[in-house]
């Protein structure tokens, strides 16, 4: 999900207060869901603490396994902490970004471009340009990480046995208690008009992340959600038809191929 490219170079200003934007939360849910996208290019303007807290408060309305509510959220605004996480991000992106650019340059619709093509139905050149835009947006975020006004790090407390082999269901059950709240956080940000994205590369070294954030061994960082007022904009997203990804009863049985409901007029 690439954010809109822009040449805007904004200086830090004063963002709106919570009281000025609280009514934006009345946005219809379907509008928020259908226009949500990763917005990585953010203005350096500060975000009111109450706006961030309200986003997290709404995130807490999501379900957790056995209603454990074993989440913790670390909010980072100090530049030194952001810089330390940014160094970890750059270390990981130097590898993954290089591989991503190489794959995207391969011909014949393969690699990352092929993934975009399957989602949009576009041609190989268009696929490569769409993926290139995503890579450029991520590169911008990497290069300007210290300037992002707020980082929210959702964490889980307990429940994950360290250094022990466990069945895959243990991992899915563990992370299933945080990602619904992360999606709530992203939807709340969308309603407020904040730019947001979900990233994990700054946490590639959990040991480093624990040291940077002062996390005890009982608290596991899961992802990073940068928040800020966007340089780009939200808007409609391109997705595959629902019928192309739904299988009935058993994998491979797809009776609804090509079917979409979002554009169908009401009867």
Strands, helices and their partners?
Blueprint: H1 18-21, H2 29-35, H3 49-59, E1 71-76, H4 79-104, H5 111-120, H6 124-143, E2 150-157, H7 168-175, H8 179-192, E3 195-196, H9 206-213, E4 219-221, E5 225-228
Antiparallel strand pairs: 1-2, 2-4, 2-5, 3-5
Helix pairs in contact: 2-8, 3-8, 4-6, 4-9, 5-6
Account of the protein in words:
The two termini are 32 Å apart. It is globular, with a radius of gyration of 20 Å. The longest helix has 26 residues, at 79-104. The chain has one domain: NADH Oxidase (3-Layer(aba) Sandwich). The protein is of the alpha+beta class. The model is unreliable at 4-10 (pLDDT under 50). The chain contains 9 helices and 5 strands.
Short structural summary:
This protein has about 270 residues and is α+β, with helices and mostly antiparallel strands. The protein is built from 9 helices and 5 strands; from the N terminus they run αααβαααβααβαββ.
Question: What attributes does this structure have?
Answer:
267 residues; alpha+beta; NADH Oxidase; five-stranded antiparallel beta sheet; 9 helices
The CATH class is identified as Alpha Beta
Q: CATH architecture, please? A: 3-Layer(aba) Sandwich
The ordered H/E elements are HHHEHHHEHHEHEE
Distance between the termini: 32 Å
**Proportion of residues in extended strands:** 5-15%
**Poorly predicted runs:** 4-10
Helix run count: 9
Largest sheet: 5 strands, antiparallel
Q: How confident overall, as mean pLDDT? A: 87
Helix content: 40-55%
Radius of gyration: 20 Å
Q: Could you name the CATH homologous superfamily?
A: NADH Oxidase
What is the CATH topology classification name?
Answer: NADH Oxidase
Strand tally is: 5
């Amino acid at each position: 999900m690439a954010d809109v490219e822009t040449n805007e170079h904004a200086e830090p200003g004063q963002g709106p207060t919570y009281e000025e934007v609280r009514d934006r939360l009345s946005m219809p849910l379907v509008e928020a869901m259908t226009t949500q996208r990763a917005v990585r290019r953010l203005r350096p303007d500060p975000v009111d603490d109450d706006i961030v807290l309200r986003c997290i408060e709404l995130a807490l309305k999501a379900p957790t396994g056995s209603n454990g509510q074993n989440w913790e959220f670390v909010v980072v605004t100090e530049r030194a902490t952001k810089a330390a996480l940014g160094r970890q991000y750059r270390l990981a992106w130097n590898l993954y970004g290089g591989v991503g650019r190489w794959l995207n340059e391969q011909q014949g619709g393969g690699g990352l471009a092929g993934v975009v093509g399957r989602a949009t139905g576009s041609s190989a050149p268009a696929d490569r340009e769409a993926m290139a835009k995503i890579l450029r947006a991520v590169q911008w975020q990497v290069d300007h990480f210290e300037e992002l006004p707020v980082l929210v790090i959702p964490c889980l407390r307990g429940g994950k046995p360290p250094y022990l082999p466990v069945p895959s269901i243990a991992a899915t059950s563990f992370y299933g208690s945080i990602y619904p709240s992360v999606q709530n956080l992203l939807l709340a940000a969308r309603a407020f008009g904040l730019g947001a994205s979900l990233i994990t590369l700054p946490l590639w070294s959990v040991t480093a992340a624990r040291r940077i954030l002062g996390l005890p061994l009982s608290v596991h960082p899961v992802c990073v959600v940068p928040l800020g007022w966007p340089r780009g904009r939200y808007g409609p997203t391109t997705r595959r038809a629902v019928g192309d990804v739904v299988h009935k009863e058993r994998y491979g049985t797809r009776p609804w191929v090509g079917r979409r409901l979002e554009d169908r007029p009401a009867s």
